[in-house]
Amino acid sequence: MSDQYSTFYVGDLFFGVEVVKVQEVLRYQEMTRVPLAPDVVQGLINLRGQIVTALDMRRRLALEARSPESTPMNLVLRSDEGAVSLLVDEIGDVLEVESGSYERVPETLPAEQKQLIAGVCKLDGRLLLVLDTERAMQIQ
Amino acid sequence: MSMNEDLELTKEFLIESNENLAKVDQQMVELEKRPKDTELLASIFRTVHTVKGTCGFLGYGILEGIAHIGENILSQLRNGERDLTPPLASLILEAIDAIKTIVGNIENTQSEGDDVWHDLRARLVQEEQAIDGGPVPQFHGPAIEENEIAAAVPTPSHPIEVPATPPSPPKAKAEGESPTAKAGGSVADSTIRVDVVLLDKLMNLVGELVLARNQILQYNATQDDTNFAATSQRLNLITTELQESVMKTRMQPIGVVWNKLPRVVRDLAAACGKQIRLEMDGAETELDKTIIEAIKDPLTHIVRNCCDHGIETPQARTAKGKLAQGVLSLRAYHEGGHVNIEIFDDGGGIDPARVKAKAVEKGLLRPEQAEKMNDREAVNLVFLPGFSTAAKVSNISGRGVGMDVVKTNIEKIGGGVDLTSRPNAGTTVKIKIPLTLAIIPGLVVASGCERFVIPQVSLLELVRLEADEANKLIEKIHDTPVYRRRGSLLPIAYLNRILRLPDPADQKSVNIVVLQAEDRQFGLIVDSISDTQEIVVKPLSKQLKGLSVYAGSTIMGDGKVALILDVMGLSQRAGLSARDNNAAHNHANQIGDQNEKQTLLLFRAGSYERLAVPLALVARLEEFPKERVEHAAGRRVVQYRNQILPLVPLGEQLDGSRRDWETTEKVQVVVFSEGERSVGLVVDQIVDIVEDHVSVKRASTQHGLVGSAVVGQKVTDFIDLRAVLDSSGERLFGDGRIGLSKMVVMVVGPSALERGLVRSYVEMADCKVIEASSIEEVVDRSQRQHMDAVIAGESLSFGIRSQMPDMQLFEFGDRDSMIRSIQSLATVVAERASAKCNVRRDEVTA
């Protein structure tokens, strides 16, 4: 048995999300800012009549801000309360990972990152961080 | 037959039963009026028969038992073997209620519930057997257990492999006996059931199509291709028509809600011993499904209220010369994009005086407010939270929750409710609601490079000021900007500042959007106003739910997202509603606030540019032409309200500046009254009336002035009325001393009139006054607020003395003792005031 992960990069972190949770991947979209909203909320996107909230993953992970010339990608996730888009630096391939080859998250990671990572998969030559999508979409 | 098919059948059965049972209530009530209407009877019979047939088929034994006996009784009626008497009608209705309950149980728990309705079944059987004839199948009797009934359902076919599933007859039998096929008839062929989720999806898709259409039309405008133009034009028409049709699929006639009202009214009338005829007009008026859901409960509540409180008993009605039977009439109609629903009863009406008295008694209203209120405003007090005039609490209504909930629920969906009443002629409640919630008209505005939509229901008017005049017209009270709109002050908020957006660079004009947030109005300054549009409201995602300034979001014609502003949330965010809007809860606090703020009259006289006197002391402001000024005993006077009003030129009193009586055409006079005596203070000009927090910053040694304070960001001198009048030789007051004191005095007494009288005396001494009607209220209030003294009616003073031994207490009873109390209070005030004054002077000199 193996699981399929849709992968992406935020800063130098390499993340994966279960393919079934991904609705679609989009290039950068124009969005409407939401004044007074938490920093993480970058804006609202019109996705074929569906209004989707875009969350900046760099802010969410407490990484340094994206340089102005690079435009992020939208990774649109399904959720019970409508779709949510995660703004990420780059989209990677879909990878097959053997089920149950997770490791626990190293305790030494910064808290903002640790709480969003469900587990770590050891791939050849690199580590895939499995995103806890529920937590990622939750902001206080 | 699989388990799945069974579930599918049960679902069908539930949907169909719920629909039919909703109708039966109304039909039964109709039938009582027209017992010979065979068609009606046949329809009721069909429904009950359908329920019986299907539930037997599905193995719901209890339900089948009740439905079966009910059906037998109905059959006797149909065959003319017996007549429909009111008790019989009640029994049938009771059986229908039981059926509904069981159907509800099946829906929620997939079982019929524990109640086997022993008593009801016994009574039904008894009724059924009351006439000779119809054979009584024994196994439907009261003693039958569920399992036996299930077993009694004939199962002629082969044995079933899974013993756990209820007996399921073969398909042929289902088709042959299923009453649905017979009952459905032609109506069933022309309608189908559609899931609301599917309709919502269609609605979204149409919204998308509209956007795509808009883009094509825009593109078309830049093209010369006539073929393309024609095609896009056709696309335009079809899209519009499609949009309207899809909208219509969500519409339901209001009759869906009204259907259950005849039963409600019948039961209530029976319970209260009243005779009520229900008239309904416009049941076909259509509304969006969500709105239908939202008005269901408020509507029922109003109808219950009308039956319980509105319409009188037959005896009372005949005594008044009315027909013994009361009329409750419901009317629904479209009007300008809204639906109006009127609920009218020809009962006793609402007595405005009683409502006012009740509101004052409950502390929802101050006595002075009540006096100023007209009858129409008064009857609408019933919508205040915690209000109920019913002398006794019945189980129908009168618990004091209800009408306020009705109002909030209707306002929640963007509607409004108004009540009018004529004594002995009846009461009309008028509800105005939008056709749909999904699409609302909104005003599109821009601020800080972003677009926002303001729902049109909150919009009152738009004001545009040129930039250079705006600086003058938007004034400031402390830091709060206000705008004078037709003589009254409108608080102003800046959308940019509320949302922390950048201010616009240089504006040629200032746009004020005047908005209504519940009971208060305010002006919202935006960078620009574009136009009004019909917008499709979409909820915000959970990440943004906490932001009270937004009501939702929408997609604009160009495909971009815009936020919809929540007017109530904005006003709270802007700090315009620091006083909580819940009148009942915070009434006490409101009084506190008002007492801290003083309303001041500002005017000019002599060399003083800005003088003030508390407005509470002023009786009237008058303007007399100079011809009316006459001389009497060496003084200037005018004839005023059948009196001779002595005039005191304030300028002369303050700095000896001579007033030129000849050149000024008009004389501005501030009139002070005490009892029957009045004095007019002549000022050069009335400047303004302001409400502000006042703290005397500097005591004055100048004759005629109490001190100076900052009012509206300018230094203002407060006149010492007593000193001015004393030196002019006019006497207005007794021995009370007037000074700016901050004493808090509570006036307690059961009579609002008496309290009002005492209040005016105490206020003359410039104390803050709080009123209370009972000892409990005094004790309660004293725990929350500092008080210097209590003035109480004789009857209450003993109680207060025993509960609050340390409090300065004075009595008022008859007029003499009241004056004595005030005088002794005035002495206390004077002592404290001079002590405070000395302290202040020390501070100044230091």
Question: Brief description of this entry?
Answer:
The complex is a heterodimer of chains A (140) and B (846). Chain A is mainly β.
Could you explain the architecture of this structure?
The complex is a heterodimer of chains A (140) and B (846). With 140 residues, chain A is mainly β. Chain A has a single domain, classed as Beta Barrel (OB fold (Dihydrolipoamide Acetyltransferase, E2P)). Chain A has helices spanning 57-60, 111-114, 133-137; strands at residues 2-10, 13-18, 22-26, 41-47, 50-56, 73-77, 84-88, 90-98, 102-103, 117-122, 127-131. In chain A, strands 8-1-2-11-10-9 form a six-stranded mixed beta sheet, with no helix packed on it. The longest helix of chain A has 5 residues, at 133-137. Chain A starts with a strand and ends with a helix. Chain A contains three helices and eleven strands, in the order βββββαββββαββα. Helix content of chain B is 43%, strand content 26%. Chain B has 28 helices and 34 strands. In chain B, the strands form seven sheets. In chain B, strands 10-14-15-13-12-11 form a six-stranded mixed beta sheet. In chain B, strands 27-19-20-30-29-28 form a six-stranded mixed beta sheet. In chain B, helix 13 packs antiparallel against helix 18. Classes of the chains: A mainly beta (140), B alpha+beta (846). Chain A binds chain B through residues 30-38, 40-41, 43-46, 48-53, 55, 81-82, 84, 137, 139, and chain B through 204-205, 207-208, 211, 448, 450-451, 499-501, 538, 540-544, 547, 549-550, 553, 555, 559-563.
